[in-house]
Amino acid sequence: MISLYSRKTETDLTIRKKESMDKYVDLIQWGRKNPTKFIEEIFGIQLIDFQKNLILGTWTSNRAVWCAARNSGKSFLVAIYAMLRALLLPNCTIYIVSNSADQAQATFNKICKLCRGEEQSVQTDPCMFYNELVKSNANTDGFIKKQGNYSLTLFNGSTIQTLAANPDTARGRRANVVIFDEAAYVSDVMYQACLPFINQDPNFKTGKGFNSKVHPKTFNNQIIMCSSAGSVNTECYRAYKQCIINSIIGYPGYYAADINCEMTLHPYINGKPVPAIANKAEMEMIRDTDIRKYNTEFMNLWTDMESPDSLLQRSVIIRNEKKYLPETASTDKTKKYVICWDPAVQHDNSIVLVGEIFRDEKVGLKGRLVNCFNLIEPAKQNGGDRQPLRMPDQITWVRKFLLDYNNAENHEYTNVTLRMDSGSGAGQQLPSAGNSPLLRNLSKLSAHRDDAAYCEHLLANYEMEAEKELGRSRTFIKLGPMLGLMGTLIPMGPALVGLAQGDISSMAYNMQVAFATTVVGLVIAAVGVITLQVKQRWYAREMNDLEYLYKVISRQTAEKE
Questions:
Q1: Does domain 326-430 have CATH number 3.30.420?
Q2: HEC profile for 170-229?
Q3: Which has fewest Cβ within 10 Å: 112, 144, 204, 350?
Q4: Of the candidates 385, 386, 383, 387, which has an alpha carbon nearest to the alpha carbon of residue 169?
Q5: What does the alpha-carbon distance between residue 431 and residue 434 come to, in Å, rounded to a whole number?
Q6: 250-266 tens-digit pLDDT
Q7: Domains of the chain, residue spans
Q8: pTM greater than 0.85 (yes/no)
């Protein structure tokens, strides 16, 4: 198929090819005026009525918010809209932004499946979008999937890329369309970082051979936020409310869609009812077990609570927020601090919060957050998946915080208290059984902090487990030379016999075996020495950290009593 925007000169084209390309240009012009019909007739995808209304309402807007219930096909609509925009508008840069790289890449994979005709919910052949992908010998399908970034490029110069919600990687970029997938969970900082994407005037064009038929002047840059309902204290909700108000009073460029479960249970195509696209039984089960989840995910009811078990509402936190420089250490001997540690060992953030506790004459005890530290690998902060520090390194950091905020003249830690999450963070993430003695004992120390005798028993057992682990290296040190000596002495007998008989070749072979076994034995011993030294330092540090944390916990328990 000839590309829609192949860069050919008049002399390069035959009359038939020129007529064919003119037809494609007319097709594109028609698609810009009839985007939903273009999807149905050219892409071969049948749209539901509410999906048609959503695309038509968004097509000419600057700001659009799609509040869509679960199982309403949000990712499908995002994929279709991105494909449509990229194909019909040349040199259009589209970013799909999500709270995680996996979510954005999952939406991108929707595009891949739709192009190949592999989407299970859509019965269609590979669409013409696939033919417009720029391909190469190294990438024969046109879909570029690198770690942290998926992308594609069309012959007309348009691109579609994924972008994880990292403000540092977003700054400095430019785009014509930014689509926030699951926008209610994208941070406000990321949203603000993406706003400059669309600040450039799309009507500004320059260059030789400018063609107004190919380069439209009437399509503005867009920010589209697509999500199920969430917290009212998010940028997504504020944008949703703004779009509703502005569209009601008649301001152009704003569009808001509210697609609740009723539309997915009773869909229509061209005004005629069709079977439900959502599972009613699943909805009813969620409604009976978790009414809050049902209201937000299916009824599009926004909430001011982060969780039914939250001690503080997010709105309270936002209302009392204040920007100031952190206190990295104790600056006043009279101040008292609480250090809160939420450990993680897999993919969650491991957080340390430091709060100052003080007494207000009118209110009583109050708290003020003075420092926050994210215990992640330093090399992972500027790109890639974030990984928490190893548990021994986390313990070292926590110990440093205790020392920094302890009164320099008081080594009893009376002005600093340590609190560790023994629930979801420590209780579930820290295994109670496994191969790591440190993790097992750390979890048990936190869970049995009130039982001093048991904690002492745990420390003694840790010393025994460490000694057992070190015993393996000591075995290598002793056993290696013993085996080497045995391997040396055994072939010496045949070697002496060969010498006595004048068989020099037999003697040389047996001597070679004897010397080789000696070297092997020494290598085994060397490995044992090196591993013993390393492990001794590891276990000594871990034992020191465990004893330190135990003393802090014991003091806090005594204060309670």
A1: yes
A2: HCCCCCCEEEEECHHHCCHHHHHHHHHHHCCCCCCCCCCCCCCCCCCCCCCCEEEEEECC
A3: 204
A4: 383
A5: 6
A6: 888 899 888 888 888 88
A7: 34-201+216-260, 326-430, 453-560
A8: no
